[in-house]
Structure formats: structure tokens, C-alpha cells
Amino acid sequence: MASHTPDKRRSRSEIHEEFPKYHFEDDFTEEDVLWKLKYREVHGDVVERGRRALDAIFDKDEEQVISITSHGGLLDALLSFVKHRGWSLLAGGKSQWLPIFVQMD
Fold this sequence. Notes:
Helix 2 (43-60) packs across helix 3. The protein is mainly α. It is 33% helix and 0% strand. It has helices at residues 12-18, 43-60, 72-81. It is built from three helices and no strands.
């Protein structure tokens, strides 16, 4: 499957230069180690990445309410992981809210 260049994030240095107050997680690498030139994630890969992100949030964050803002691909994967009914998210930069409540055991 062909790569999709917009999926590659900017380097940590570039992000820090534009957003100097942003706090990076300890394991946030300089370059995007998840983006591959000749491979694009399939839905199952994105679901697994979303699951790991939710696990990390629930393991480390003591807040009772959090907000996740992301692109439609990851939000769709998170909905799959939490067994939420399908939801058609708008593409092309159109703002859309989808509040869901998740309780981890």
C-alpha cells in the first residue's frame, strides 16, 4: 500500500519551535517512527494504536474527564475499540463533536 505523506508528523523540534509551551511525553521521538514510506496503516493497526493510547491514558491520568481531539481515522478506531456504534465523521476540516463516555475496568 502506498504511503500517505500527510500522515507523517513533523519532527519534535519543529513542533517545539512552533509550540514552545507544549509538554511532550517522555517517549515522544524526534522523528515519526510510526510513519513508513511504503506502508500505510490499515484499520486494525489504528484500532490497536488507539487501544494503547487509551490504556496509557487510563493507567497514568487521574482526571475524571478528558477530551481527545484527533482526526477521523483515529476517532473511528477508538469508537470501534470501545464498541460504540458506527458514526460517520465529516472529513475535510469540518468541525464535529462526538461526546462519548468510557469507563475502563
